[in-house]
Specification:
The chain is of the alpha+beta class and 350 residues long. The protein has 12 helices and 10 strands. Strands 1, 2, 3, 4 and 5 form a 5-stranded mixed sheet that branches.
Length: 350
């Protein structure tokens, strides 16, 4: 990850700024053990003891800052500022180093790939495609590539890598840090595409419906973190499979920087209590076959557990009759926010 004190990065375009982040590291030193080092400093020499401690602190604080930036899928930290404060007392010294920076998302400075011009072929594009061909031929899992290869894939903008990205979405390495870092790098592939292209790929994949639960979860995270919001495509998700409909619900819970006339028209079409219609009950009602409750109607949850008809949530997995978990984003919550937003829009239009 690039970390710089400047407010720009040569050869890269900042596509999105995040709120500034900070990290603090405190380390203690024994005053008496460093007396000799202090004398060296006094006579114009260098204190290697203090230098090592300062270098250690700087490295730790910048690594902490990087981890926090990576947690929000940022590509770089700009405007880095580092302050060191010394705290002394009771025969000991402590140093506190504070680092502040702004995490940003990057994309390569746009270079229109020209495959052929005046009977000349683009040599750089040929090199990229040759490398891509080799990667695709040898890719087994994210563990089979190094970080440089993952970065090349993410920043290439080559459409050949779309199937590989979706394959990687199905890989899970738990708490293993290195594979996770490479996966997160690969998933930034969409940040280096034009928004329209990224949205088309992600939304079309949801509409097709041939996705695993893990792939759906990661697409949801990518759309949310990169703010890939397109109401005209999201409205179509409501008429698709259950995974697509739930992501559509999430999309309409997000806020946009600007609302076009088309956006407002789509929001108006969802006014009232429309969202609930896209999420009917999906449970099966059947007669109980128990010894003491035979003939009574019960509903069977997706997990297979049977519940009394008047129970709103499953006694085993806690899902409701529409399949929503207790803490899941539900239509009623999004509908309330949407209706409130429309109320403000109507007041601004009048």
């Amino acid at each position: 990850m690039i970390v710089t004190t400047t407010n720009s990065i040569e050869g890269r375009e900042i596509s999105r700024y995040n709120d500034p982040i900070a990290a603090n590291v405190v380390i203690g030193t024994n005053v008496f053990s460093d007396i000799g080092a202090n004398y060296v400093d006094f006579f114009g020499g260098r204190s290697t003891s203090y230098e090592k401690k300062m270098q250690e602190m700087y490295k730790r604080v910048t690594e902490t800052l990087k981890q926090r930036a990576q947690a929000i899928r940022a590509d770089a930290i700009i405007g880095l500022s580092v302050d060191i404060d010394e705290i002394s007392g009771k025969g000991s010294q402590m140093f506190m180093i504070t680092a502040v920076g702004t995490p940003v998302h990057l994309r390569e400075v746009a270079r229109v790939p020209v495959e052929k011009q005046d009977d000349l072929l683009d040599g750089e594009l040929i090199q990229q495609k040759v490398r891509a061909d080799i990667i695709l031929e040898n890719y087994k899992s994210v563990e089979s590539i190094n970080k440089d290869t993952a970065e090349f894939i993410a920043t290439s903008g080559l459409s050949e890598f779309v199937p590989l990205i979706f394959k990687a979405m199905n890989e899970d390495y738990g708490i293993e840090q290195t594979p996770k870092e490479k996966l997160e790098m690969l998933f930034r592939y969409f940040d280096y595409l034009p928004d329209e292209e990224a949205i088309a790929i992600l939304y079309n994949a949801l509409l097709e419906g041939n996705l695993t639960t893990l792939q759906v979860k990661r697409i949801n995270a990518i759309i949310t973190s990169s703010n890939f919001i397109d109401y005209s495509k999201a409205i179509n998700l409501f008429h698709s499979n259950i995974h697509a409909r739930r992501i559509a619900l999430k999309i309409f819970s997000l806020d946009k920087a600007w609302y076009s006339k088309e956006d407002i028209a789509i929001l108006k079409s969802l006014e009232g209590n429309v969202l609930a219609k896209f999420f009917p009950e999906i449970v099966q009602v059947e007669e109980s076959k128990g010894m003491f409750s035979s003939g009574k109607e019960v509903w069977r949850c997706e997990c297979g557990h049977t519940n009394k008809l008047d129970n709103s949530n499953c006694g085993s997995c806690t899902r409701d009759k529409r399949g929503f978990k207790e803490k899941s984003l539900k239509p009623e919550e999004v509908q309330g926010k949407l209706n409130r937003k429309l109320k403000i829009i109507f007041s601004l239009e009048s």
